[in-house]
Design goal:
About 70% of the residues lie in helices and about 5% in strands. It contains 11 helices and 3 strands. The longest helix is centred in the N-terminal third of the chain and has 18 residues.
Length: about 190
């Protein structure tokens, strides 16, 4: 609440200086960690569109916050077209962001998890990526459903990143568990 009031006061005063920039940077980083898009999204847009145009961010800061914006568009809003437009507009050359975009465009759960687990990413990037977990789990479930008749329960849990009981309840998969084997489809009799 206090961060919102501070942000609104800076906007109302039309202040664009180092203090305003640092406040926005702090608010964005903190509210991403809190998972509060109502706070970080407007702050991110104001930082990139208004403050950055009048008082340019350093190249590292630009890369960081454009990356957050692209991840928000991709993972939370699921707007790939806008994400690619922002990537082009800010000339974002970030290998990790490109890999995330590729994973989401192609439904590549394994690449998505590999990037998410990589040690070089910031906590904020990983937090933003959590918005896409449900979509990526759906892709994994679809792939398993189309590819296998039966499979080991541990493999299903590894592929989806979800325990069997949670997967059954959340995704409402019609699969049956027989011992440690998940029966996905029955063979059709001729």
């Amino acid at each position: 609440m206090a961060m919102r009031k501070l942000r609104e006061a800076i906007v109302a005063s039309s202040r664009v200086d180092d203090f305003a920039k640092e406040v926005y940077i702090f608010i964005i980083r903190t509210t991403i960690l809190l998972g509060h898009p109502e706070s970080y999204h407007p702050a991110l847009l104001h930082l990139l569109r208004r403050i950055h145009s009048m008082m340019p961010l350093s190249s590292e800061e630009t890369r960081e916050f454009v990356g957050y914006y692209i991840l928000d568009l991709t993972c939370r809003q699921q707007d790939l077209m806008a994400a690619f437009s922002v990537r082009k507009m800010y000339n974002c050359r970030n290998r990790k962001i490109d890999m995330i975009l590729t994973a989401l465009v192609h439904g590549d759960w394994f690449l998505f998890q590999k990037v998410k687990r990589s040690a070089d990413g910031s906590v904020q990037e990983k937090r933003l990526m959590e918005w896409a977990n449900g979509k990526m789990t759906d892709y994994a479930v679809q792939c398993l459903g189309k590819s296998y008749l039966s499979v080991n329960k541990a493999y299903v849990e590894q592929c989806t990143g979800t325990e069997w009981e949670k997967l059954k309840a959340q995704k409402k998969v019609p699969w049956a568990l027989e011992g440690e084997t998940v029966m996905i489809r029955q063979m059709k009799k001729r």
